[in-house]
Amino acid sequence: MNRTIIALGLLACSTHIAAQDVNIYTPGTDEGIVYFLPKTALEVNIIATRISYQPGELCQYANRYLRMNNVNPQPETYWEIKQIDVRSIGVPDSTKAYIIKLKDKSTLSNIELTENGIAKAINTTFPKEYEQQQGYELEKSLPHESTRKYMTEEILMAGSTAKMAELTAKEIYNIRESKNLILRGQADTMPKDGASLKLIMNNLDKQEKALTQMFAGTTDREDKVFTLLVTPEDNTKDKIVLRFSRLLGALSTDNLAGDPIYISMSSTAPIPAPTDDSKKKKKPEGAIYNIPGKGNVSVSYQGKKYFEKDLPITQFGSTEVLVNELFNKKINTRVVFNPETGAILKIDKD
């Protein structure tokens, strides 16, 4: 994108000079406020979980004392896909750059732009309630309880690993018995109220979990987001956007160590027939905005469909004009655009 275009466009964020005409922008030939309409890019977000397992130091005795089968004695790290999400985002379309000439008797130049020069609002301020929420709630394991602080003196003084396992298992069973006696109301000293009961039970649960980790081991889970941009194309079928491996996580499309993640998309509404090029070059006679089309987008991995939704896609739509007469100072028209699609979100006037 031409840097001159961006520089001119950003001037509009603080400019309130009257203007009247809107022309297709040709770098170096006109003066005024430049703005862009957005085109759609599909932001594909793969939320994957990295799972790390560490065996407990008493794992070889898990079945003998706690009847825990299939406890893995080896450390292990692997990845799982938790979610795949696709969003339509707007990027400046260099083929749809327009310039507002500075003239009197119009409020059209009172235009608010994004940092990339995309039109957000005319003759008003972009409302905060229309701002899109970003980000995802990501999982991250909390630090594990220290097992040593819950071991009795007898456990710590055990002369062998086998004896330590036996004594630790007995302590776990004692904790379970204490919990059962409290719940049945048969304990020698019962909690005085509900808050005390909850506190005691939480402490017993914490002790049991920490000691059980000596046999079962610990598992940590941490989410990570892998993001890539895809240009929408009609009738796209099973295009590889990324590869994913259980052992290695997200990989590039040419790394055959992972299985492919596919994206498919198609227009869900007829694409307008292209207009004559000669007509496109005529003066637009007002503020240009998008009427985005829609496309069905789906993403799959290993035969499972993780995402499918109709999304707004400007390339599958058309453009229209808000005529200059709407921005006569006597009418005072206010317009809010969606900076992701270029569509009108709200329009009103005095």
From TrEMBL:
<feature type="region of interest" description="Disordered">
    <location>
        <begin position="267"/>
        <end position="288"/>
    </location>
</feature>
<dbReference type="Pfam" id="PF16115">
    <property type="entry name" value="DUF4831"/>
</dbReference>
<dbReference type="InterPro" id="IPR032265">
    <property type="entry name" value="DUF4831"/>
</dbReference>
<feature type="signal peptide">
    <location>
        <begin position="1"/>
        <end position="19"/>
    </location>
</feature>
<protein>
    <submittedName>
        <fullName>DUF4831 family protein</fullName>
    </submittedName>
</protein>
<keyword id="KW-0732">Signal</keyword>
